Amino acid sequence: MNHALKNQCNFKPGTVIQGKWHGHRYILLKELGRGANGTVYLVKKGDVEAALKISTNSMSITAEANVLKSFAKVQGHFLGPSLLDVDDWVLKDGRYSFYVMEYVKGPGLQAFLDAKGKDWVLPLFLQLLDDIGQLHQNGWIFGDLKPENLIVAGPAPRIRCIDVGGTTLNGRSIKEYTEFFDRGYWGMGSRRAEPSYDLFAVAMVIVSTAYPGHFQKKEGGLAELLSAVSQKSELKIYKPVLVKAMQGRYSSAAEMRTDLLFCTGRPNPVGNTPQPTRSALKQASRRAQSVKVRKKKSRIGETFYIVTVMAILYIVYIVMYLT
């Protein structure tokens, strides 16, 4: 079925797709990716570039568009791309359903970390957990969370997702997953869509930053995962958080985010006090210097105020005495 689908959604650059209902015209520039539920193309409408996902499976397209609509309800959070259009394209050989979304530009997560350094792991994943927590509150589980679906967009670096095909309603069975990031594959839980499923995947994405090519499962289970974590010095700081996430002991993304935040060197609620990262130390130093400057200015201001008040009182006293 997937093979037939890929052949059906194989269109050449320059092809013009025109929506039946809204009438918008899109020129295909190049293919961006393809999967079991359709093909994604870079398209152009006028001078604006966008990403268009097309499929013969109208139910899948509708479901993914609904997910993007749900993302849009979360103001101030940008995990997924913005939804721009949903329509059908009718040809002689049948009907194709498609949706058009914002074209998110930027390097992949691993490429960004390779270029900028591993100090970016903490701020990026704090932001990711914040956005995932908002998604969970809206009743959705991301499902197929993996580095290949994550891009770091700018100018202020933040993680964005370019594929929401695995997103599933809370309580249902996960419909798409990638083995390395799936807790069922490691024997660490079910494939039921719930917050702890995504948080296991977040832990494995953090692990993958130290293992870009991943590693092969031998026996599975927590012992093997902890052994992999212990072998990488850059992962040891996050080990207490990773353990809790792998064991499914976080009830929410906010709880995991709080524990991860304490990995900067402050007292850690998960029972460990790791060394702060270099970026955390620099930030702390800048904050301390800023506090010193503010305190110094405050003391100068207070002294000036006291001297001024005393001078005024003295002048008033002299005037009253002379008169």
Describe this entry's structure for a reader.
There is one protein chain. With 323 residues, this protein is α+β, with helices and mostly antiparallel strands. The protein folds into two domains: 2-57 and 82-102, 2-Layer Sandwich (Phosphorylase Kinase, domain 1); 109-276, Transferase(Phosphotransferase), domain 1, CATH 1.10.510. It is built from ten helices and ten strands. It has helices at residues 2-8, 58-72, 109-116, 121-137, 195-208, 221-230, 233-236, 239-246, 253-261, 278-322; strands at 16-18, 25-35, 38-45, 48-55, 83-91, 94-102, 140-141, 150-153, 158-161, 168-169. The strands form three sheets. Strands 1-2-3-4-6-5 form a six-stranded antiparallel β-sheet. A two-stranded antiparallel sheet has the order 7-10. Helix 4 (121-137) packs antiparallel against helix 5 (195-208), helix 4 runs antiparallel to helix 9 and helix 5 (195-208) crosses helix 8 (239-246). The longest helix has 45 residues, at 278-322. It is globular, with a radius of gyration of 27 Å. The N and C termini lie far apart (105 Å).
Please give a handful of descriptors for the protein shown.
323 residues, alpha+beta, Phosphorylase Kinase, domain 1, Transferase(Phosphotransferase), domain 1, six-stranded antiparallel beta sheet, two-stranded antiparallel sheet, globular, disordered N terminus
